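In response to a reviewer's request, we include the raw inputs and outputs for one of the modeled complexes. The two entities were modeled together in a single run.
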Amino acid sequence: MALEVDIEKRAGGFQLRTAFSCGEEFLGILGASGCGKSMTLKCIAGIEKPDRGRIVLDGRVLFDSEQGIDLPVQKRRVGYLFQNYALFPNMTVRQNILCGLHYEKDRRKKEEEADRVLELLQLKELETLRPSSLSGGQAQRAALGRILVNRPDLLMLDEPFSALDTHLRLKLQMDLKTLLSGYGKGILMVTHNRDEAFRMCERIGIMSRGRMLTVKKTKELFADPGSREAAVITGCKNIARARKTGEYEVFVPEWNVRLTTGKAVRDDLEAVGIRAHYFHPGTPRNAYPVTFVREMEEPFEWVSEFRYEGQDPASPAVWWRYSKEKRPARLPERLGISPANILLLYPES
Amino acid sequence: MDWFPLFNSLRIAAISCVIVFFSGIFAAYYAAKLPRVLKGILDVVLTLPMVLPPTVCGYFLLLLFGTRRPLGKFLMQFGVRFVMNWYGGVAAAVLVSFPLMYRTARGAFESFDQNLAWSGQTLGLSNIWIFWHVRMSACRQGILAGAVLSFARALGEYGATSMLIGYTPGRTATVSTTVYQLWRTNDERGALFWVLVNLGISAVVLLTVNLMEERQKAG
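The model returned the following structure tokens for the whole complex.
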């Protein structure tokens, strides 16, 4: 394993307690703002000091409270791409990149390497500009270039796309993914955007209130988040308390429906989750009569709110989201769900 | 024509400006890192000379450097006497102009984006390199403005200076003490001359500050 983290830190009323590892892979940490994601990165980089714990990178101990080891930031060899890219404002793009090459004493090699990275990241024409005249995407490339020439053992990206205009994000995500494929080192990305995490990461850890709830392969995580909180963070819109009534059957009191599940249900079931996309008028499985409350149009989809027949009036309506192409002439009277699409949610261990 | 007061004033202001430049930056940098309560107390102490009457500052300086006070006596053993000597004027100028440098530098440091320093550290750049090449460079305009203001303040210092070093022509006379002395002895023309010198210098200084602020706005 490239990186192993097991740390605790108290800051004000907030407590961070997290343990995970990251190999030569693209690992995402997904969580709402203020959940401790950035604090975790800062602890790994050495900017913040954990109260207790251990951080090991490629066998090098960066931090160990028991052995009293706390390497200074400069010795950790951890690349950190800040949310605002943190390019030095008084230097040109080229000078910024040369800052990442300070370890190279041979002047000629230094300039060659700078040229190579400027070419690679298509920054050659911009090399004499200062950061204030760069666009968000260009600044991101320059900051990334400065880190790449520095050859860190781990690359950390803190909300790398949040400072960019929405219409640029997708392209830059594609660019970054291409650039970093086969990078050969661990990459740790922090984000609050589940789509971004899904597109970029091979594995994702869900973080909430200072804890890492679960770390799974991306697709497995979205198919089975495991707990109510993880389901919410992965964007599941419909979550309701439920109890086990059979090996493959649960009862949801708020909705007043009995659902057949794809997976065997454990006794300690807490709730079920159903993603808004997974309701289907044509599915006979788990199909129950519904009444539509209201709806809203999006560019390519419709979002509807409905209630089950006999649904507890105090409980929130259920969301259904479907492609416009599939919009029926009349809204359906029944909606079904494939058993495999029912998320079984358990208390956090 | 005796140009000594101008020479003496410029010498006092220049030396005190250098001292205040470094000590003000140093104090501002470390004050920003202190816990809140301690920072508040230090802030009051360091800024007091700006709002106190200069004569009160002069009084404190005499308490410290007076020839019958412990520190004054101690320094006398080495032939150093701040009272009635031109370099006493430096001490007075440092005391009253320090808060200007400290406050402007602190303001500049507080608006500094800490991510810049952190990103430098993660790249392996030393803290000293980051301080001089990144932090000071990003805060350049504010710090220069502070230095110019404290230079101007030192140049115009009267109250504490006259209490500590008095007025001896050719030895401790500065532009501002000379204006007062000439006026007092009915030499109106002489006083007016030094007033004009003083006006000229102050105007140049303020113009410099304004130009720098404009450049800062222009980025």
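As requested, we also summarize the result in words. Residues 236-345 of chain A form one domain. Chain A has a mean pLDDT of 93.
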